[in-house]
Known about the structure:
By secondary structure, the chain is of the alpha/beta class. Helices cover 53% and strands 10% of the residues.
Amino acid sequence: MFAGHQDLVKNFKELVRAGKLAHGYIFFGEPEVGKFYFAKHLANFLENGGFSAKGGPALGWELSYRPLQDALILENASGIGAMREIKNFLWQKPVVSPNKVVVINNAENLTPEAQNAILKITEEPPESSILILIASRLDNLLPPLLSRLQKIYFGRLSDSEIGEIELLKAKSSKLKAEIISSSFGRPGRAMRLMSDPVTKEAKNYARNFLKMTGYQRSALIKDLVENQKDKPELLDYFFEELILELKNDIVNNAPFLKSVLNRLFLIKSYNVNKRIQLEAI
């Protein structure tokens, strides 16, 4: 069973059966709320007839182990070269599915040239084509592209919906409750908390950071900054976990939280020394 967004599952199934799918969509909403997973499962539904994987592991958020023949899934496309690949793919006839589906994750990172190339594809799309852009922010997308494609909003899930993730069902009641509480309605975060070692590492860094002072904290910061060179996502996850820990007592931690948010802004906005910024918290 596909976990969450059951209203959208129902609506898209009806559109498929009625032959009324649009040629282009933008799935937008906060990070990790299931936009990208939904798009991949929609492609799976078109090709295999199910939103849950058939013949593969029934994980609820994982796709079948067998690659889809009529879907092109791009996770980090940004330049014009990928757009040529998309155009060539969409102009081929479907093999199994009634449609050729292209899913572009992190579409807000597309260059203006790439977005203009997509716009040209959407002006005269092949009859069987479906193009889905996944974005957490719409302000980086060109206005003509926003007006051309249908926009579908994805919100956070309820605790009960998070609890329907198959991998989570196998966990102990205590661990399941902890993950649901810490996921904040974001299924992608719930999956990270269960299986991603970098997320667990970031959580340990954040908790130790708050416990330590002086030399110990400086040593931890040095280790964190060195470690994130090989794991770029580690620092982002560290700040995420640190902010969540501080929000447990937001009244007493307000000055500390403000400092953390200021340093995060500087690190994200400018080419500053990360270690110095962390030391200044």
